[in-house]
Amino acid sequence: MKIKGIGEAKAITIVAALELGRRRHASASLEKVIISSSIDIAQYLQARLKDFQHEVFAVLFLNQANKINHF
Length: 71
What we know:
By secondary structure, the protein is mainly alpha-helical.
C-alpha cells in the first residue's frame, strides 16, 4: 500500500496471489528431494527461505538414500 494507487483491497489480492504461487511451487516438489551435493542443499534452502525477512535456523533430516525427510 506504500505505492500510489495500491489500496488495501489490491494489496490483499497481490499478497494472496503470491501465497498461491508459493503453495503451488511447494506442492510441485512434494516428492522427496535427493541431496547429492552442497549445491543441492543451497538450492533447496534458497527456495524455502527466500521470503523470510529475518534470520532462520533450519535443520534438514535426510534418510539413508539422501532424500529429505523433514525440514
